[in-house]
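Q: Two folds, back to back.
A: First:
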Amino acid sequence: MATLIESEAIARRRDELLVVKLRELAEFDPHITQREFCRRIHVPQSQIYQRFGGWNELRKLAGLPPRTGGTRKPRYEVGWLVEKFRETRTLYGDDLTMRDFQRHTGISPTAIRNHFGSWSALRKSQGLSELPKAKAHYTDEELMADLHRVAWTLRRFPKSAELARLSKFSLSLYARRFGNFDVLRALYGRYADALCRREIVENLQRANERSAGQ
């Protein structure tokens, strides 16, 4: 009997961890699919049905809206595409890329090309210039330093929407470099600790130098 109770407790804890992990991944990708979720955390899709009854049930537990099939027609209306562009622009800013747009909305580049000719043409139709060529490579230090600037401004670790709005870099760049938000938060914690220790050492050195000069 005790073994059965322990097994149920372990299963419940595992379910709770799946809910937490979905929330974390949805910070970067609100439209994440069941297939992509299971691929990232290395669990079979059948487990979602067995433990929760379905993908939408798990999304509901994570505080996310259900995924519906809906109709395909709105995806091919110019006004609807422009509306989605404007919504996403409020999160990512004027440097919104096609990749960020696709990641956030699930709309394929083909739909953009079919209606506007290109991503640049859609941007121009909304009063935005072509994106400048991106720097070939940003170091981890540059990314963490800007994240630290944002965290210092907020006096806490930022939410994904806040980071997208306040950082010089896109959320997709942080995701590609560091992984999900949980990983990024942990790495930033170590970065901030190291930065704090370095500042303490430097302050002590300056204090010693002043004392020696007196």
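A: Second:
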Amino acid sequence: MHPDIYMALRPQLRAAVLSWFSLGASALAMFAYALPTLLDMLGFSTQATSLSSTLPLLKPSRIDKNAAFISSGALLAVATWLVWCARRPRALDPALARRCRRIRFWNRRALRASAGFWFAAVLIAYIGLSIYIGCGFYG
């Protein structure tokens, strides 16, 4: 890659990497903590148990829940900041500016999906479970 092209695309590519990593971290938090909790709340506790035993990566006891949500939230915040900083294309070449806009479009889309996953997982894993236990449905 030519150095001028790399310098023009560097902020977009850096934001892209963290956007997609935050999407993965948010999805992992969603499937490791929120999905078994949601299945248990809906009465499918046997399916939640079999899901956790079938896929050992999704076993919540392997990773601390607070650490998983704090680290994925921090990664989401850094990715948001990098996408916000790379909002203007620096390329004068129209083809390169079009590439920058395309990368920025997919960065925003991945960031929105990861934020949606993260907020849904936090809502289900912390707030939904507290309401479920508080209303006396558990046990």
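Q: And?
A: The chain has a mean pLDDT of 76.
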